[in-house]
Write the structure tokens for this entry.
Amino acid sequence: MKTWTRKANAQKAIAKVLEAAPDFIFIEEIEAYETGEDAIKSFAVRVTLDNTETEAEDVRELLGDSATVIALRSAPETVETVEETNAEIDAEIDAEIDAEIDEWLAVTKPAKPAKKDVDPLATLDVFGLGTSKVDAKCPRCGINHFDNGHTTQQDQRDNGLPLLDRQFACLGCGGEWGRKRTTRTFKGRSGSLEGKTFRVVDGVSNPYRFPSKSFEAFAYVQSNPGITFEAFKEAGQRVRTLQEDLKAKRVEAI
């Protein structure tokens, strides 16, 4: 049985799937209830239909193990007729309905996503291998980084420190996790800057608005005096800001 950690997410997930349900499906209630199967609170979903058991089977096939489907009405009794023509007509109608249902299920059944390489570190949030501050674990050293100390990409920016390669880092072992930081390739004219090193002129403070790419670029030079142009570009910093700061004499080549 599929479960969710939040009740509201469980309700929304099933409701979204059933929005495209056939016209013959009448939803009486969608209920998320606590399963109590695990130590961590989780919720499963129960969908109640004002339909027959036969019709409910189509919904069960659509939802799989995502919800428990309950039909309120019992299946109608079959009425036998001595008239062969009426039986043939009923059989044809049933066949047409079955064909329409099969066609609808074939169209609406979500296609399996193509397999691709998954970066396991990119799927982790600030808690690392855990789910809360209590059981948080650095994926590299296994220590609770909320006790041991950790930093984030935003912390690095706020303090004018070199940026991380990923979103989070353990201060104990230096291990990083989370999404990788994207770098930009500068396509402008920068030949005159290649091979040079730079520093912020003494007494000059960061003139740019925080947060902005220019603020980040200036802070990067300020916290890395003697940075080479190649290292500046490799860090994904804004080259145009460096050019403007050189022109305004806020930064100088050394």
The helical segments are 7-18, 53-63, 84-108, 145-148, 153-158, 213-223, 229-234, 239-247. The first helix runs from residue 7 to 18. Residues 25 and 130 are 40 Å apart (CA to CA).
